Amino acid sequence: MSSKPPAPGPGPVPPRPGRKLGPIVESVGSAHRAWLEPVRDTYLTSGLTLSELSVRVRLSKSKISELLRGTGLYPRWEIILSLSAELNMPQWPLYRLWRHAAFEAHKTREWIDRCSERTTTATASHTVPPLDHRAFRELAEGDYSLYAQVFLDDDQRDSAVSDTFDILWLRWNDALASSDTRRFAWEVLRATVMSRTPHIDGRPEFGAAAFDTVALRVLTDDTARVHQMAESLELFKAMSRLPDNQLDVMVLRRLCGFALDSASALLGVPLATVGSDERHAVHFLESVICPPPETERTPA
């Protein structure tokens, strides 16, 4: 059994000999990227070279380079399992993310099961995340679902939230080492949700949320509901133009009903920042939806 890679030191990782690893290719899908980025980041901070990793996993350097860039054929699970063992990564969340991405890559269920049938038992033997990760999930999962529901349908919402916590499990040490674990986690959630949200001209499309706003739920008159629906759709279209931080604040505050301090805690940003983002967002929305009338010019 080969030894685990040395833990990175307090300083920056020294440059590796040989050619630098290229970036992940643009064609990699969101589900594939969800597990590839943590694997790639772990490799880059491990201190191992491609040559050393090649000997340990018995795969050529070129194939490992392709895998870490997302080029070539979608990799079989046994290869990812070997890499995860050498990089000392938790295998169960990695397997779930790999399996999800395999479907995105149009692999059949038979191919997926055949790739993993000999290794699933070993993979599933370590299914318990760290205690503090479990505690964090218990606190945040319900609130994360409320946010994701604004952008995604029920199945996509549940998948996005589940994948978020799997990614966090893979990157939990990074989350704990960050300036604020809550902020780190929120950025993972947001990236996961937005990768599955339809976009128009680079803006998230979430008009479906109009069917489940608080305003609509309390209205019983059909005419009033239609009027409110039109107003909601106009509001959501304008909200999609907000900067990311302001959009998140408005979704949490106005669509999910979070108090100011609760939104601050969930986002991992100061209370004053949330208040400022909300004020700027409201000012922008009012200027777009209800612009002030033009000043009449006095004839010369």
Secondary-structure element order, N to C: HHHHHHHHHHHEEHHHHH
Strand tally is 2
The overall average pLDDT, rounded, is 84
Spatial arrangement of strands, main beta sheet: 1-2
Overall radius of gyration: 23 Å
Shape: elongated
User: Could you give a short account of the major beta sheet?
Assistant: 2 strands, antiparallel
Q: Name the poorly predicted regions.
A: 1-10, 296-300
CATH topology of the largest domain, which one? Arc Repressor Mutant, subunit A
Distinct helical segment count:
16
CATH superfamily of the largest domain: Winged helix-like DNA-binding domain superfamily/Winged helix DNA-binding domain
**What is the CATH class designation of the largest domain?**
Mainly Alpha
Report on the structure:
This protein has 3 domains: 30-89 and 101-121, 434 Repressor (Amino-terminal Domain); 128-197; 205-290, Winged helix-like DNA-binding domain superfamily/Winged helix DNA-binding domain (Arc Repressor Mutant, subunit A, Orthogonal Bundle). By secondary structure, it is mainly alpha-helical. The chain has 16 helices and 2 strands. The protein has helices at 30-46, 50-57, 61-69, 77-86, 91-104, 109-116, 120-123, 131-151, 154-170, 172-177, 181-196, 214-217, 222-239, 244-255, 260-267, 271-289, and strands at 199-200, 203-204. Strand 1 (199-200) and strand 2 (203-204) form a beta hairpin. It starts with 29 loop residues before the first helix and ends in an 11-residue tail after the last helix. Helix 4 (77-86) packs antiparallel against helix 5 and helix 14 (244-255) packs across helix 16 (271-289). A two-stranded antiparallel ribbon has the order 1-2.
